[in-house]
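From the shared-data thread, chain only:
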Amino acid sequence: MLTSIATFLERFKLPQSKSKRFLAKEVAAIVSAALGKEVPAESFRVQQKIAYMNVSPVVRSEILLRREHIVAALRDRTEGAVGDIK
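Structure, as tokens:
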């Protein structure tokens, strides 16, 4: 019986590459690489293909200056799961 429940629940499980925590880590890695500074994954949340940032105004300005490069890298690395950053 437990195996049938487990197989039923497998249908609703998100793949690792689509989970919100994984996407937030990917966004943080891409932004950190673009800025040359470490930005924690807790500073980002992903909802409906948009990454929202909760960072200081200085870091936000740096991210928005390099927005085109960051968004292009996000689309490539997350296979379209994240398409914009705000």
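The chain is about 50% helix and 10% strand.
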